[in-house]
Amino acid sequence: MYSVKEALTKATQQIKGISDIPNKEARILLASYLKKDQLWLITHDGEEIVEEGYFKLIERRFNNEPIEYITNSASFYGRDFYVDSNVLIPRPETEILVDEVISTCKGIKRPTIVEIGTGSGIISIVLALLIPDAIITAIDISKEALKVAQKNAEKYEVDDRIEFIHSDLCENYKKKNFDMLVSNPPYIANDESLHIGLSYEPSMALYGGKEGDEILKNIINIFIEKNVKNLACEMGYDQKDAITNYLKDFNLKANFYKDLARLDRGFVINK
Q1: Cys-Cys crosslink for 247: which of 83, 190, 238, 252, Cβ 3.0 to 4.6 Å?
Q2: Residues sharing a CB contact under 8 Å with residue 46, sequence separation 6 or more, in sequence order
Q3: Which helix (H) or strand (E) holds 136?
């Protein structure tokens, strides 16, 4: 038996080499394991616990498994969402994509929004919460990802306002002339080497083709073919020129935006 304080000290040492914030992660994992909050850990640091299950979680983290998969929890736009290895872990930069959609839809009454590659559902769910009159369709090629998205939608009580569709891109979605197409698609080149932690995330949510921008270009094609009014996409930091050149063939221009690191991270096209 270990006290809370002793367990945290040992766990912090074990993950010191793979975490930039080992003490914080040790605390997050212990709180998750005990189903307690951080304040409880502070006020009960002398209390003894059955530590075996906790150190199994620490071992998973030591093997570079993302903490979000271990705790089945990820934060996005100030809210907690359920995640597992069937979906991509939300990134802070994707919040900027949500902001771009909200800004674009401002002034549109009952905007119709379609998301390609919804994953855990975070984008569509936050949009449903922040644009109460929006009509939203969320699409994903993975049935397992859609189960996660549905679970999160039920948690935030917007499952009756989002239509979830199993489809490769828009193959099973025939409607046209809607207001907004949004996507955070896979945009990493197939041969690009990744950090070991990314190996736990679904490859279909990461890799976008030989060059990395193939799915992005397919989404642009859908935007044109379906006569959508607006498109907002996240992209790789080095794909601005490729997207700009591709749009020239259609006489279109994109407004590019940067992430918090001042890297090119996405674009918006308005017809």
Answers
A1: 252
A2: 3, 4, 5
A3: strand 135-140
CA distance 129 to 162: 11
Confidence tier at 192 by pLDDT (50, 70, 90): confident
- Give me the pLDDT at residue 234, please: 98
Query: Tokens at residue 147, please?
Result: 């189960």
Q: Which residues contact 198 (CB under 8 A, 6 or more apart)?
A: 206
Rounded distance between C-alpha atoms, residue 136 and residue 237, angstroms: 28
The answer to whether 220 and 249 have CB atoms below 8 angstroms apart is no
CA 73/CA 225 separation, integer angstroms = 37
Distance CA(178)–CA(188), nearest Å, equals 28
Q: Using the 8-state DSSP alphabet, how is residue 163 labeled?
A: E
Report the DSSP beta bridge partners of residue 163.
137
Tell me the two tokens of residue 244. 């700009």
For residue range 198-219, what is the model confidence (pLDDT) as tens digits?
A: 889 999 898 899 999 999 999 9
The radius of gyration of the chain's CA atoms, rounded to the nearest angstrom, is 21
Tokens 């990744």 found at: 194
**C-alpha span between 193 and 259 (Å, rounded):** 22
Q: Where are the domains of the chain?
A: 2-63, 75-80+85-270
Which uninterrupted H or E stretch holds 74? strand 74-76
User: What's the gap between Cα 25 and its chain centre?
Assistant: 20
Tokens describing residue 117: 């590659």
Residue 213, Cβ neighbours under 10 Å: how many?
23
In the block, tokens 């397992």 appear at 144
For the domain with range 75-80+85-270, which CATH number is right: 3.30.457.10, 3.40.640.10, 1.10.1670.10, 3.40.50.150? 3.40.50.150
Place of tokens 């909050």: 37
